[in-house]
Amino acid sequence: MSSIENRFFTVKKLIPKNIKILVVSKNQDITSIKKLYQIGHRDFGENYVQEMVVKYQKLPKDIRWHMIGQIQRNKLKYIVPFIYLIHSVQKIKQIKIINNLALKYNRIVNCLLQIKICDEKSKSGISNQEAYDILKDETYQLMRNIKIIGIMGMASFQELSKVQNEFLYLRNIYQEYKKKYGHHVLSMGMSRDYLIAIKYGSTMVRLGSSIFG
After folding, report:
1. Would you say the C-alpha torsion 210, 8, 20, 110 has a positive or negative sign?
2. Does 123 score more than 90 pLDDT?
3. Tens digits of per-residue pLDDT, 31-50?
4. CB neighbourhood size of 71 (10 A)
5. Bridge partners for 150 per DSSP
6. Measured between alpha carbons, how far is 109 from 123 in angstroms, rounded to an integer?
């Protein structure tokens, strides 16, 4: 068994079975992804459209691909035919394009709204009010080929108390949206803070360095 597989099983033991592990495979080669695929893992996340498309073409088609990075609107057409979940939706214009493309391919594309929960410039996202405006938008409510099923957020590289407050803030938004809109995905927590995120109600953690090293 390789070090990648060993690290995966070590991490998996720490995570409750009801929480989905999304392996962040950006910058990883096909061989590394195959090692995890061969032990039964199916959910992989990418940041860049071109890299994802190449991997999709070369790897088994039952892999569930997640787009966790920002996407230019003109590149959505390359992933909508096969994407499992888009984590980084922030604008109604994006939603309209995804819906139109999904209609073309006769499928429903699930998405998360990315909400900004910290003040670091490197972490993008929209405000709670902007997310609420999207969800109550009449145009979105009439769409049939896109479905927002939850929210995503990234905590800061700050002290523990600040990270906890950021996760608590996102959890409170999620609980509100769960009641109003039936959301069932709260994607928060990465390799450095996933155990904290789990304590605050995350349903999906995004792990890269803790598995690939």
Report:
1. positive
2. no
3. 999 999 999 999 999 999 99
4. 22
5. 112, 185
6. 24
Q: Which of 119, 118, 113 lies closest to 174, judged by CA?
A: 113
* C-alpha 98: how far from chain center: 16
Nearest Cα to Cα of residue 204 among 33, 48, 64, 18: 18
CATH code: domain of residue 166: 3.20.20.10
Q: CA-CA distance, 65 to 86, in Å (whole number)?
A: 9
H helix runs in the chain, sequence order: 3-12, 30-38, 49-58, 76-79, 92-104, 128-135, 138-142, 160-181, 194-199, 209-212
What is the length of the chain? 213
Tens digits of residue pLDDT in 129-147: 999 999 999 999 999 999 9
C-alpha to C-alpha distance for 117 and 165, rounded to whole angstroms: 9
Short-list 73, 82, 142, 78, CA closest to 107: 82
When divided into structural domains, the chain yields a total of: 1
Q: Is the pLDDT of residue 122 over 90?
A: no
The answer to whether residue 120 scores a pLDDT higher than 90 is: no
CB distance 189 to 202 below 8 Å: yes
Average pLDDT, the chain: 96
Instruction: Tell me the residue range of the domain where 178 lies.
Output: 3-212
